[in-house]
Amino acid sequence: MLTTSFLFWLAVILAAVTAVDEQTVTHLRGVDTAAVVGTVAPAAEAPVVEEQTATSQSPTSASTCQLTHGQAKRLLLNCQSDRIRFVGIGDWGEAKETSGVRAVRDGLLRDAPNADFILSVGDNFYDNGVKSVNDPQWQKTWVERFGIGSKLNVPWISILGNHDHKGSTQAQVDYAKGSQPGSKYWVMPDRMFSIDTTANGHQMRVIATDTEKLGERGDNSDAKILQLNSILQSSKVKAYFGGHEHDMQVLQSGNLDYFMFGGGGRSIQTGKTPPGTKAKTLFYALRYGYAIFDLDVAQRQLSVTYKMFNLNGSRAEERTFTRQY
Questions:
Q1: What angle do the packed helices 22-30 and 222-234 form, to 10 degrees?
Q2: What DSSP line would sit under 167-179, residue for residue?
Q3: Has keyword rRNA-binding (predicted)?
Q4: CA torsion angle for 110, 240, 40, 76 (degrees, to 10)?
Q5: Number of folded domains in the chain?
C-alpha cells in the first residue's frame, strides 16, 4: 500500500494544552506548521480502533456552539455541550463540476447542516487561488455549489493551501470581513489564528495556520519536516488533521495519529513519501470524501468517520476510527 507525505501543507493537531506553551508555539511559527488543539491532560495511551460501519444517519440536533471574534487573530468557540461535531474537508476547490465534486457536495449537504462548524484544510480554490474578494470563484466554487447561506449555514473555519498561495492570500482573509455573498460564514481571521474553545467548562485551544513551507511539493526541506515532527512528538500531540494529498488516509507515527482527508473533489492522485519521514499506514483509500469528527472533550474520546465515494461518484463504504486520549 502506497504511503504519502508524512506531513502536509495544512492540518489541525489535537494536543494536551499543558504541553503546548508559548515557546513551542514560537517554534511552530518558525516552521510554518498547521494548528494545535489543546484539551485537558490526556489519558493513558490506547490504540486506534477501526470499525467498518453501515451508512449512518445525518445528525438531527442543532449546534450548541457559538463562534465569535475575540482579539486580533483569535476566535472564541463557546459550546454548551462537552461534545463537539465538525466536518473536515480538504482540497475541495475544483472549479469543474466533476462526479467527485458533486458526490462530496451532496454528502456535505446531508451531513454538515447541523455540525458545529466545517474545517476546511486548504486548497480552497484551484489552480491559483483567488485574485480578490470579488473573484468569481467565490460565488461559483463555494457559495453556489454548497448553497452557502441557504442550504448550508454553518461556519467554514478555513486554512490556506499551497494552491491558495498562488493567488491573493490576503483576499481570503479579507473575504471574512466583507459583505460579499456568504462572507459571514467564511472564517479566516488571519493566515495564523487561534480558536479558544470552551465545551461545557472544558478548555481547548486551536492554533491554526498553513504549512506553506512544508510538505513534499515545492521548495521544501526534509529537515524542516523532521523538525516539526520532533516538536509534535515532544509536545505530546495526539492527532493531526489535514489534507493536501488527494485521497483518504489514516497514518500513525509513534503515539501520533494522522487523519488525512484530501479527497474533497480535486482529481484523485497519490503522493510521495519524503526520505526519513515515513509513518505507518493504518488506512488508505484512493477515493473522494470528507471526515466527520465527534469529539467528547470530557471523556477525551475522538471518533472519526470517513464518508467516501468512488471515482465515478457512487457511494463507497464508510470507515470509523475511535481514539481514547
A1: 160
A2: S-HHHHHHHTTS-
A3: no
A4: -60
A5: 1
Those residues with Cβ within 8 angstroms of residue 230's Cβ, 6 or more apart along the chain or in another chain: none
Instruction: Report if residue 3 sits inside a domain.
Output: no
Tell me the C-alpha to C-alpha distance, in Å, between residue 34 and each of 40, 62, 319.
Answer: 20, 29, 25
The alpha carbon of residue 265 and the mean position of all alpha carbons in its chain are separated, in whole angstroms, by 15
Query: In angstroms, what CA-CA distances link 11 with 8, 43, 179, 181, 182?
Result: 7, 23, 28, 27, 24
Q: What is the DSSP letter of 139?
A: I
pLDDT tens for 114-154 read: 899 999 988 899 999 999 999 999 999 999 999 999 999 99
Q: Write out the DSSP string of 240-304.
A: EEE--SSSEEEEEETTEEEEEE--SSSPP----PPTT---EEEEEE--EEEEEEEEETTTTEEEE
pLDDT in tens, 255-302: 888 888 988 988 876 555 444 446 788 999 999 999 999 998 888 889
pLDDT-derived band at 55, boundaries 50, 70, 90 = very low
State the Cα–Cα distance between residues 204 and 202, nearest whole angstrom. Answer: 7
Residue 153 lies in a domain: yes
Distance of alpha carbon 133 from alpha carbon 156, whole angstroms: 16
* 2 in any annotated domain: no
Number of H helices, E strands in the chain: 6, 18
Q: How far apart are CA 249 and CA 40, in angstroms?
A: 26
Q: Supply the range of the domain harboring residue 282.
A: 11-324
- Tell me the residue type at 164: D
**Where would I find the H helices in the chain?**
22-30, 99-111, 136-137, 145-146, 169-175, 222-234
- Dist CA 155 CA 190 (whole Å): 15
> Is 304 inside a domain boundary?
yes
Say if residues 209 and 192 touch (Cβ distance below 8 Å).
Answer: yes
Q: Which three cell numbers stand for residue 252?
A: 500513525
